[in-house]
UniProtKB/TrEMBL annotation:
Species of the source: Lentzea xinjiangensis
CC annotations in GO: cell envelope; periplasmic space; plasma membrane
Protein name in UniProt: CopC domain-containing protein
Record flagged with keyword RNA-binding: no
Signal peptide annotation: 1-26
Amino acid sequence: MRRYFSALVLALLAATAVAVPAQAHAELKSSNPASGAALDAPPQQVELTFSDVISLPDGPAITITGPDGATWPVTQAAAVDRTITAKVDAGAAKAGAHTLAWQAKADDGDTISGTFTFTMNVAAQTSSATPASSVAVSAPVSGTPPSATPSPESGGVPVWVWILVALAVVVGAVLLARRRQA
């Protein structure tokens, strides 16, 4: 019995050691405009703040799509430490829901991505005079970034937890079968 318990402990430690490094990606912590924000004036700049150091991806870092399917021109994207900033042409803003898709390169070289929406209450004015005080202030985004592609963790429980549960069930079934045979 002691031998089986030792095997279970070693199996659980091995599963944890393999699964934990996969959880080390940077996550989107806050954004300006914030996820779900309702803006009275279009932003002049987008700012994304992450939980870890990031860099610009090989493709576009930020894409904003309006309710009509048109994308906003995004220029001067830069990554500094944990933040990506980019200038946007607010003249492309229309009233309605906008989708902001982002990509960043994590410190380990993997590309992470996600999307969120914000709403423009009114369309952009043709005049370039927009009061700075009308732009929404950055607000926290949920702890896990929404992703355009499903991830193994999209169910809310990390994959490594399910691996540990499965291992415990298998080892428990083997121990129960052995015990009944004895």
